[in-house]
Amino acid sequence: MENGNVPIPVQAVTVQQQDIAAYHTFNGVTVYQKKENIRAHVTGYISWLPYELGSSIRAGQTFAHLRTKEQDALREAVLIDSTLEKFSQPLGIQSNGTGIITALNVQKNDYVAEGDLLATIAEPSSLVVQVNVPFVYENNLGVGTPCEIILGNDRTIVTQISGSLPIIDPIPQSHIFLIALPKEQLPESLNVQVRIMDRGHKGVKVLPVQAVQSNELMTDFWVMKVVQDTLAVKQRITLGLQTDAWTEVASDSLQVNDKVVTEGAYQMQDSTLISVQ
Predict the structure, then answer these.
(1) Who's near 4: CB < 8 A, 6+ residues apart?
(2) Is the dihedral of CA 265, 270, 274, 277 positive or negative?
(3) Tens-place pLDDT, residues 135-144
(4) For the whole model, what pTM was predicted?
(5) Per-residue pLDDT tens for 231-262?
(6) Do 159 and 147 form a contact (C-beta atoms < 8 A)?
(7) Reduced to 3 DSSP states, what percent helix, strand and coil does the chain have, rounded to the nearest 5?
(8) pLDDT of 27-80, one tens digit each?
(9) From CA 5, how far away is CA 256, in angstroms rounded?
(10) What are residue 104's DSSP bridge partners?
(11) Where in the chain is the domain with CATH 2.40.420.20?
């Protein structure tokens, strides 16, 4: 042998039979589709405001009381004519939506003008992930396509595409798809990753990608097959579906349970004496 009969230490694994799938990963962001704004309907001062940012509120509930300058002027007159008291009571501002207060622009005693935006209410059940998908993948996606949403804390939500917008972002030429998450409690504008399966094969021969070697042009592929745990033989193979970790063996040159070298085979000659560690 060219290595002087000194076995080269290597690591090896066996060819396995399992399912393999290739995925596309896109960036997405959480968005509340349904929001309601609460605005002042008269000019005056906020005299009562029990809510804080993040509070829950229902449609029809009183959000705040507003006191006008005219009502302040009536305080003295009420002492003389009690029939005017009903006109001096602060005006109630009702919520026109049910959800969470995600923006609160005023506090007690603030002066507001008619039409001013006081708060924004987001309906949690309207939460969606908006994902921009390059148009070249248009034919691979649609309503009902399974997908996985990967959060920053390594949590994964298994769901499916629920809708799309009939517009194309002109600069990146991407199509906007929506993924509804009505039961998830996630903040708005959260960046997530959306993983969508491209292709999948069931019950095929696979081996780790680090076991595969190739020429510079990536036209010829081979592995070092282990024979009797002492010899590494160069075995050409044809690749099928590939992922970051696994590659499918599409040829019959390797069979399930054949052993191949994963570490120590770089630039190894055919029929090299080895020692499997």
Answers:
(1) none
(2) positive
(3) 888 777 889 9
(4) 0.68
(5) 999 999 999 999 889 999 999 999 999 999 99
(6) yes
(7) 10, 50, 35
(8) 999 999 999 999 999 999 999 999 999 999 999 999 999 988 877 666 666 566
(9) 29
(10) 119
(11) 8-21+202-276
CB of 128 within 8 A of CB of 180? yes
Return the CATH number of 35-122, one of 3.40.430.10, 3.40.50.300, 2.40.50.100, 3.60.40.10: 2.40.50.100
pLDDT digit string (tens) for 81-109? 655 555 667 889 999 999 999 999 999 99
By the 8 A CB rule, do 232 and 271 touch?
yes
Top CATH class of 23-33+125-200 equals mainly beta
CATH 2.40.30.170 intervals, the chain: 23-33+125-200
C-alpha of 253 from chain center: 40
In this structure, what DSSP letter does residue 58 have? -
Among 26, 35, 20, CA closest to 161: 26
| CB proximity list for 6: less than 8 A, separation 6 or greater | 273
* Residue 261: other Cβ atoms inside 10 A: 24
- Per the listing, tokens 């691979």 go with 140
185 burial type by CB count under 10 A (0-12 exposed, 13-18 middle, 19+ buried):
exposed
Side-chain half-sphere exposure of 46, counting CA atoms within 13 A: 24
The pLDDT of residue 3 is above 60: no
What CATH number should be reported for the domain whose range is 8-21+202-276? Answer: 2.40.420.20
Q: Which residue has the tokens 């596309």?
A: 24
